[in-house]
Design a protein that fits this description.
Blueprint lengths: L10 H26 L4 H8 L3 H8 L7 H9 L20 H12 L6 E7 L7 E7 L4 E6 L6 H16 L6 E8 L2 H9 L1 H7 L4 H10 L7 E5 L13
């Protein structure tokens, strides 16, 4: 059983700290690149369409500059600014809605299953399972989608996590996508009917039965989790 959960890292704080690190990194690399080609701050500023003071402040890790200003400053010294987004090792369940769904799933499980929240998957710690449940016969990787904005794009990372787990365990590893049981989500899933039937064929009813009774899931599937307005004792009666 998963114990009561709370966010280990507040996203706003983590974001501010990361922004500070990135500003410092950009400023330092801009200064190194500028000096390497023998340019003054004034020349770089002219090339970038910024003031000399702005270049100086960027190099000193000052706040208040747009992404455009950083990109222009970097371009002025012959470099290119690169930005990418990747999963954080510290928090894979990104909001309280996901945590609530994870709790509701765990509350309905039989003692035959053990669960771990945000279980590391990759050696580098950059990928984690939203909820990893294990029994004597199989592992169940549960990934929580609160919306279906782009189902195909969301599904592939989850499948890669399952493949990473399967490469390290002898027991079968099955992927379960957990979604809120709402009219909107069910409609979106129907729109992807062919893909869902092919890649996630196990029904929600069968998954809940296996989790509740300690049986075998036996494959990949989608499980619907009812809204919190229903009593917890009914959340697995699907």
């Amino acid at each position: 059983m998963v114990p009561p959960m709370s966010l280990r890292v507040q996203p706003a704080h983590a974001g501010r700290q990361r922004a500070k690190v990135l500003r410092s990194l950009i400023g330092r690399e801009l200064r190194v690149a500028r000096l390497a080609i023998g340019l003054t701050q004034r020349v770089v500023a002219q090339r970038a369409g910024l003031s000399q003071g702005a270049i100086s402040q960027i190099e000193r890790d000052a706040r208040g500059f747009s992404l455009s200003a950083y990109a222009r400053a970097v371009a002025a010294v012959g470099h290119e600014l690169s930005v990418r987004v990747f999963p954080a090792a510290s928090v894979s369940l990104r909001d309280r809605g996901q945590l609530e769904l994870a709790q509701r799933i765990a509350m309905g499980m039989s003692p035959g299953w053990s669960c771990e929240l945000e279980a590391p998957i990759s050696p580098d710690g950059l990928r984690a399972a939203d909820l990893l449940c294990s029994s004597a016969n199989e592992l169940c990787l549960i990934e929580i989608f609160r919306s279906m904005a782009d189902f195909q794009a969301q599904l592939r990372p989850a499948q890669l996590k399952r493949e990473a787990l399967a490469s390290r365990h002898s027991r079968p590893v099955h992927l379960v996508i957990a979604v809120p049981d709402t009219v909107t989500v069910r409609r979106r899933i129907r729109e992807f009917g062919g893909l869902v039937n092919k890649t996630l064929p196990v029904s929600s009813q069968r998954i809940w039965s296996a989790l509740r009774n300690g049986g075998l899931i036996g494959g990949d599937g989608i499980v619907f989790v009812r809204p919190r307005l229903l009593p917890p004792s009914r959340c697995t009666a699907y």
